[in-house]
Amino acid sequence: MTPPIRAVIADDQMMVRQGFTVLLNAEPDIEVVGQAVNGLDAITQVDELVPDVVLMDIRMPELGGIEATRRITAREGSTVKVLVLTTFDLDEYVYEALRAGASGFLLKDASADELAHAVRVVAAGDALLSPNITKRLIVEFSRTAGAPRAPLKERIGDLTERETEVLSLIAGGMSNAEIAGQLILAEQTVKTHVGRILVKLGLRDRTQAAVFAYESGLVRPAGL
């Protein structure tokens, strides 16, 4: 049997931690192995428990979720995925968390099914979480970033023409199946291209690829 997805919940509100713990532990393939009260506590628990996913609140005392996310995901060889918890989707802090390495975000009023689905998606790393909402968030705040960041733009040259095309479609929120249909390729071929893109650009997952595509200037928000 496949081992359950191991999760840590980091939130300074006890009701949120306990409520999410009850909902996730009711799922046969998810196990909450720890609860953290702030970012520093989250980092300690990641070190001790080695979870697959951390559900991370943004605003916490001592160390906030953005910096905690950055420290957790920046470690060499780290495979821990971070799912940011927020109260509304178009939140500049959520965008900063995505830039810091978070794989997706979830509204705190999400249903039990949405919560479990989000944990599974982030753990798998094979799809954007709520592609349309994530794309809208990235587009909204990449507008304020100004000119493309030169170092990122230069790294596009490491990609083949086909990989560049696939990266653009990832930024559009497309799944592997949708990209395969668009480019008339086998889905496995698309999956191979996505893997190579992530390796070449040193990215963790599709969400990071979408952020990269906009911040490098490969894809530009409409009207710019």
H/E topology pattern: EHEHEHEHEHHHHHHH
Query: Helices and strands: which structural class?
Result: alpha/beta
- Outline type: globular
Number of strands: 5
Number of helices: 11
| Overall pLDDT confidence | 88
N-end to C-end Cα span: 50 Å
> Main β-sheet: number of strands, strand sense, barrel status?
5 strands, parallel
Q: How do the strands line up in the largest sheet?
A: 2-1-3-4-5
Radius of gyration: 17 Å
**Which percent range describes the beta-strand content?**
5-15%
Helix content: 40-55%
The unreliable regions are none
Domain HTH luxR-type: 152-217
InterPro entries: CheY-like_superfamily, NreC/VraR/RcsB-like_REC, Sig_transdc_resp-reg_C-effctor, Sig_transdc_resp-reg_receiver, Tscrpt_reg_LuxR_C, WalR-like
Pfam families: GerE, Response_reg
Keywords: DNA-binding, Phosphoprotein, Transcription, Transcription regulation
Structural account:
With 224 residues, this protein is of the alpha/beta class. Helices cover 52% and strands 12% of the residues. It is built from 11 helices and 5 strands; from the N terminus they run βαβαβαβαβααααααα. It has helices spanning 14-25, 39-49, 65-73, 92-100, 112-124, 131-142, 150-155, 161-171, 176-183, 187-201, 206-215, and strands at 5-10, 30-36, 53-57, 81-86, 104-107. A 5-stranded parallel sheet has the order 2-1-3-4-5, sandwiched between helices. Strand 4, helix 4 (92-100) and strand 5 form a beta-alpha-beta unit. Helix 8 (161-171) crosses helix 11 (206-215) and helix 9 crosses helix 10 (187-201). The longest helix has 15 residues, at 187-201. The radius of gyration is 17 Å and the shape is globular. It starts with a strand and ends in a 9-residue tail after the last helix. The mean pLDDT is 88. It holds the Pfam family GerE. It comes from Streptomyces stephensoniae. Keywords: DNA-binding, Phosphoprotein, Transcription, Transcription regulation. Residues 6-123 form the Response regulatory domain. The modification 4-aspartylphosphate is found at residue 57.
